[in-house]
Design goal:
- The protein is an alpha/beta fold.
- The chain is about 30% helix and about 25% strand.
- It is built from 11 helices and 16 strands.
- Strands 3-2-1-4-9 form a 5-stranded mixed beta sheet, with helices on both faces.
- α1 links the parallel β1 and β2.
- α5 packs across α6 and α7 packs parallel to α9.
- The two termini are about 40 Å apart.
- The structure holds magnesium ion (MG).
Length: about 375
């Protein structure tokens, strides 16, 4: 028998929102993978091979996003969970086995769904539950009146599976049940329990949304410019002008160090290279301050949910000597990258007189950056 999925997403997130803060629907929060909470729960059901289709009972906010998921139907919820569930069952296929799932449980696994379905097929109704590990007290006022035998206590999860008609009858007879299973129990239907999953948490507060540490991405950049024969051109390296030194040729200010750094940043977030972004055929970049390019690259890192954590730059030149300018460059670049200067390293090397750079025909630079992608 094929099973129909029913996703309940009509909750009002009352416990999710701290008092005084603007109300936020927790089901619309994005999980580290990029999916909204409700959508991850929806997809878990929709992608299960034994689930024939999924109906959605939701708040207006979730319904606005529903078309992208192509549910069998998408309807507004009722005043409470039971009413929402009842509305969804009304629209579900006749005589179907219905799997009711809470949209606030986005981490439900395929195995868990299979386990509950397997038990429901054999026993008629089934739910997943996890054993209680804390000792549970019954408290009257502020005095413990008894301690429950926790070996018999379990925490109910969803998905909960039952026959549509049985569940409708049970909910109609017991409208105050807090979950589907308790309505079934009250109606005298035995509910089989399968092992739940600790990871199948119900997102109740912000703390329930996992924060992943992020993925490191390393970008590298290289650039080279020849010295200019134009005495009017100034030498600019790392945003710092070197007075009295021969300038480099280029469409912009030819800041070879910033160009290598810009390429490294673009590389770390998969945004191509400096030539793609700022073609040297574009007259608006003639003589441009290369900080413009660097700032755009930094903006693209941010737009890709990246955070720069280190930058290591190497200047390859016979002249000039960096000397006291090294620290100035370091400060200038750290400021632009919004990075601790200790994480911004500026190195310099010569070519020992070999090759074009050794012959003082130009200057090259290399850069490596590390970006953490959230
Ligand atoms: Mg260049």
């Amino acid at each position: 028998m094929k099973t129909f999925g029913l996703l309940l997403a009509a909750g009002s997130s009352t416990r999710f929102n701290a008092s005084g803060e603007p109300r936020e629907n927790k089901l619309l929060r994005k999980l580290p993978g990029g999916k909204e909470v409700w959508r991850a729960a929806f997809d878990a059901l929709a992608q299960h091979p034994a689930v024939s289709g999924v109906g959605l009972v939701a708040s207006e906010e979730v319904l606005a996003q529903a078309p992208s998921a192509s549910p069998e139907f998408a309807i507004e919820g009722g005043a409470n969970r039971q009413e929402s569930c009842r509305r969804g069952l009304e629209r579900s296929p006749l005589n179907a086995m219905v799997l009711v799932h809470d949209a606030a449980r986005p981490f439900v696994s395929e195995e868990l769904i299979s386990r509950v379905l397997g038990a429901a097929e054999r026993f008629g109704a089934a739910i997943p539950a996890t054993p209680v590990t804390d000792t549970i007290k019954v408290v009257d006022g502020s005095i413990v009146s008894s301690t429950l035998d926790r070996s018999r206590l379990f925490r109910a999860q969803t998905p909960q599976v039952a026959l549509r008609e049985q569940l409708i009858a049970a909910l109609d007879a017991h409208p105050n049940a807090t979950d589907e299973a308790s309505a079934l129990e009250a109606a005298g239907i035995s509910v089989h329990v399968v092992r739940g999953e600790e990871t199948n948490v119900k997102i109740t507060t912000v703390a329930d949304i996992p924060q992943y540490p992020g993925t490191p991405s390393v970008g590298s950049g290289f650039d080279i410019h020849a010295f200019s024969s134009d005495p009017a051109r100034k030498l600019v390296l790392g945003g710092v002008t070197f007075e009295g030194e021969p300038g480099l040729d280029g469409h912009s200010d030819a800041d070879v160090l910033l160009h290598a750094l810009t390429d490294a940043l673009l590389g770390a977030v998969g945004e191509g290279d400096i030539g793609l972004l700022f073609p040297n055929t574009d007259p608006s970049y003639a003589g441009a301050d290369s900080m413009i390019f660097l700032r755009e690259a930094v903006a693209r890192v941010t737009a890709n949910a990246g955070r720069i954590v280190s930058a290591d730059l190497t200047l390859i030149a016979e002249i000039p000597k960096l000397k006291d300018k090294r620290n100035e460059i370091r400060q200038r670049i750290s400021q632009e990258l919004r990075l601790d200067p200790r994480r911004t390293n500026i190195k310099a090397t010569t070519m020992e007189g070999m090759g074009a750079i050794g012959r003082k025909e130009g200057i090259a630079a290399m850069a490596t950056v590390t970006v953490i992608l959230q």
